[in-house]
Design goal:
- With 292 residues, this protein is mainly alpha-helical.
- Helix content is 66%, strand content 0%.
- It is built from 16 helices and no strands.
- The protein is globular.
- The two termini are 35 Å apart.
- The N terminus is likely disordered.
Length: 292
């Protein structure tokens, strides 16, 4: 009965009819002035975020806009001016031009603002962090409609938020411990063929699955990350791995397994993320992994 209810709820969510009461609750939260950011974060963790409210909700929770509505116009004007100033500076220095991909423009802007743009900028992206930023930027561009300034600020702030999670070096070891407990046969197989340590952890935990899942599915994970639920990433990784269990058990080399997990088609991605969220919820919707 629980499975039927979960399927029905997810179906309503997909077609846009789910959560009338939840939408009303969110509307009430957004009418507060100042907005209670803590309650918005709880909403993100517990309920699906309606597409129409996602841009405003993300901007508030990520600190792009302040909690007081009376200052939104002024603050956003400053954000746009800063975006234009940084973009113009890179253009003048011939670091970007009209042919530079937008996700790469965002990365170079971010690096310049952070004071870490390398002198040999033509090599960017050259680190795992930078490649993760580019993938996140691409996903944000597919997830949101808006001007480039909107997309840049969402990308930059979301990346900085996720960096707090992904730089937890314990994530892979916690993931492996969970896999060993949940599916010892799969764990032993991966360990035997020396693939376990070569799983795409950077794409999963640093890039928060950007480029792995399509944006329309990924948004269901990222909404919860906005609320602070970084432990969900572990469950998404487990669901991704176990969904390919039968194929993986027949493979003996790292490369085919890595290719299998690199990019998931929309129809399969949806069921994987649904399963991950379901198991995470049954486990108690813990926000952060426990380091033992």
């Amino acid at each position: 009965m629980t499975e039927v209810r979960n399927f029905r709820s997810h179906y309503y969510e997909k077609v846009g009819f789910r959560g009338v009461e939840e939408k009303k609750s969110l509307q009430i939260l957004l009418k507060d002035d100042p907005v209670d950011l803590g309650r918005l974060e709880v909403f993100c963790v517990r309920f699906p975020v309606p597409v129409i409210y996602r841009p405003l909700l993300w901007k508030l929770v990520l600190g792009i806009l302040p909690p007081h509505y009376s200052t939104h116009e002024y603050v956003w004007k400053q954000r746009v001016e800063q975006y234009n100033d940084v973009h113009h500076a890179l253009d003048v220095m011939s670091i970007i031009n009209e042919d530079t991909p937008t996700n790469l423009v965002f990365l170079k802007m971010f690096l310049l603002v952070e004071g870490i743009l390398p002198l040999e900028d033509h090599k960017v992206p050259e680190t795992d962090d930078q490649r993760a930023f580019v993938e996140i930027a691409s996903a944000v561009m597919n997830m949101f409609d808006g001007e480039d300034a909107d997309l840049y600020w969402i990308t930059a702030r979301f990346y900085k938020l996720c960096s707090k999670y992904s730089h937890n070096k314990a994530m892979p070891s916690i993931f492996e411990a969970m896999l060993k407990k949940d599916d010892p046969e799969l764990y032993n197989h991966l360990e035997k063929i020396r693939v376990l340590s070569r799983l795409p952890y950077n794409s999963w935990f640093l890039g928060v699955f950007a480029g792995v899942f399509p944006a329309e599915v990924l948004s269901r994970v990222w909404d919860r990350l906005i609320g602070g639920a970084c432990k969900l990433l572990l469950y998404v990784g487990l669901a991704l791995l176990t969904s390919h269990r039968n194929q993986i058990l027949t493979l003996q080399r790292p490369e085919p397994i890595q290719q299998l997990l690199a990019k998931i088609q929309p129809d399969r991605a949806d069921s994987i993320v649904s399963k991950a969220i379901e198991v995470w919820e049954k486990a108690g919707t813990h926000l952060r992994p426990e380091v033992t």
